[in-house]
TrEMBL record:
Species whose genome carries this gene: Streptohalobacillus salinus
UniProt name for this protein: Methyl-accepting chemotaxis protein
InterPro entries noted in UniProt: Chemotax_Me-accpt_rcpt, HAMP_dom, HlyB_4HB_MCP, MCPsignal_dom
GO biological process: chemotaxis; signal transduction
Localisation per UniProt entry: Cell membrane
Pfam family, one: 4HB_MCP_1
SUPFAM superfamilies named among the record's database cross-references: Methyl-accepting chemotaxis protein (MCP) signaling domain
Residue ranges of every copy of the HAMP domain listed in the record: 202-255
Lineage: Bacteria, Bacillati, Bacillota, Bacilli, Bacillales
Amino acid sequence: MKIKGKLVMSYVMIAVLVLVVGGGAIFGMATIQDNARLLYHNRVEPLGAMTEIIQTGENLRVQVLEGIAEENTARGEDAVVAIDTMNSLLENYGQFQLREQEQGIYDQLLLEWDTYSSQARTNARMIAAGQFDSAATSDSAMANDFVAFRETLYELRDVSLAIAEGNFNDGEAAFSTVRLITIAIAVFAVVLAIALGLLMGRHVGNPLKKVTDRLTLIAQGDLTHEDMHTKRKDEVGQLVDVTNMMQEDLQAVIRSVSGAAERLTGASAGLTQSSRDVREGSEQIASTMQELSSGSETQANTVATLSEKMEEFLNKIEEANKRTEDVSNDSTKVIEQTANGYKMMESALNQMITIDGIVNDAVQKVAGLEKRSGEVSKLVTVIQDIAEQTNLLALNAAIEAARAGEHGAGFAVVADEVRKLAEDVSNSVREITAIIQGIQTDTKEVVGALESGYGEVNTGTVQMAQTGQNFNEINEAIKKMVEKIEYVTSTLSGISADSVEINTSIEEIASVAEESAAGIEETAASSEEAASSMEEISTSADTLSELAENLNQEVSHFKTLA
């Protein structure tokens, strides 16, 4: 049988053992699951229902007692609801799968419940109707019935708990049995697998180790051992035969490669020398072309830089020409404005002369006014003296009239009126005197101001005349400057035209220099490519020589039969 069949058989046996172990485990788990399901449906659910029945029965009893004690009619209605709930719970409990012992106790429980529930319903209706005394009497009579019902209910609960505990113990016993069987099968499977492993290792591993040792010697370059012998016809025997064939083929290949490596070493040496000679010539050509390319590139860059500088110079000349034209135009405008300013200065000078005459005339007139004010002041003084004398005369007349008695009464009245008139005149004269003095003061101030203004006008007239002369000189200087600017503009226009021609010539030179540089660069690139190719050939020749030497060294590691 071949190794494949043996391995398959051993794996099949192990798989069968695994299936047996798995089947036993599945069977055990199914048994445990069934026990758990039965325990839940037949024990846990009935116990839960039993607990609810007990709670409802206790609640019914509490409702009746509290209704009687508290005389609460609502408790009677709650008791009726509890009775209906208890009927439903007992009916549902009877649908579970009960044991024979449980069924007997359940039937007895129903009989006792019928007796107790009928009396409890009657008492509940009495409580709901407010007949508390009757309900109390009836409740005392049915107390024993409730105790009997409750004891039977607890007995049924205890029996259910005992049965549930028995089911649980049966489940644990089944689990222990399944676990023991599973462990036994697993131990047997492990022992059988180890035995199969040892058997397959001895039957397959030992021959494979011999082949591995021979392959290790071959990998180390030792081909001097005799062929291995075997009578096996399986894969191990085929591997031994193939190893022997590989050793013989490697011996033949090593001999052939050794001869080829020696011939390759000689050829690579000649190729290396030829490639070096060609490479040196290519490098010399490339170096020369590189120098030419560098010079042409420098020339092209210089011409390009010169072209850029000429372009900038041309732009600056054009800009200067435009600025000069603008300055010429602005100078013409300045000349016109200067002429207008000169005319305005002449007009202002004439006006200043006119103002000078007007101010001089005003000064003279104000001086005359001041003189007339002095004369009026003198007249006022005379009037003041007359008024004082008149007042004295009136006073004397009044004195004389007083002496004359009744005959002088009329004269006394006239004298009094004259005295009052003299006083009024005196007062008016004083007011006029004050006014004239104010006029004289203001007149003196006006005279001073006019004289000061007249002096300023004279000074301004002189300055205006000097300014007019300066404007005339500025006008002449600007005219000369405009003539020079026009000459500069004409010269810059000529320079701009010449610069355009120079820039065109420089661009042509730059174009020729760039074409020359491009041609030289192409030639240099071709030389560099040729040098690079020869470098690669030389490198390849060196590499080939190294490979030949390495091949000889590698081949020398193998030991072959003579």
